[in-house]
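Hi everyone,

Forwarding the result from last night's run.
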Amino acid sequence: MKVGPPSWSGCRSMSKRRVEQSLAGAALLFAALGDPTRLTLLQRLSDGGPASISMLAERFRAMTRQGVRKHLHVLAAAGLIDGSRHGREHVWALNPKRLAEGRRCLEIIASGWDDALARLKLHVEGS
């Protein structure tokens, strides 16, 4: 009897290439979320709506606007935020669809582990 997760539950119907692309996208997403500064920026955009770099940089007194800008570009590369020009300012807004994708990814992982733990329990109790 297999004890570990056989594959991602929910991804069995996907082609191997599509699963690999999904995993690569998830890795980019979670890498972007792995920084406290970027999490703070996301929280600010979530709570306060779209904001310019100037507005976002006010919270980070020890960091230059250029430093904040680099964090915003990491978030944008991961698809977590979108930027647009409004006159002279670049305004950033949260992309809730990408966050929902991350949540679904975590749910798939959790489901796989729930299945694996259930099989382990059956295996241990059946011995």
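Residues 16-95 form a domain with the Arc Repressor Mutant, subunit A fold (CATH 1.10.10.10).

Cheers,
N.
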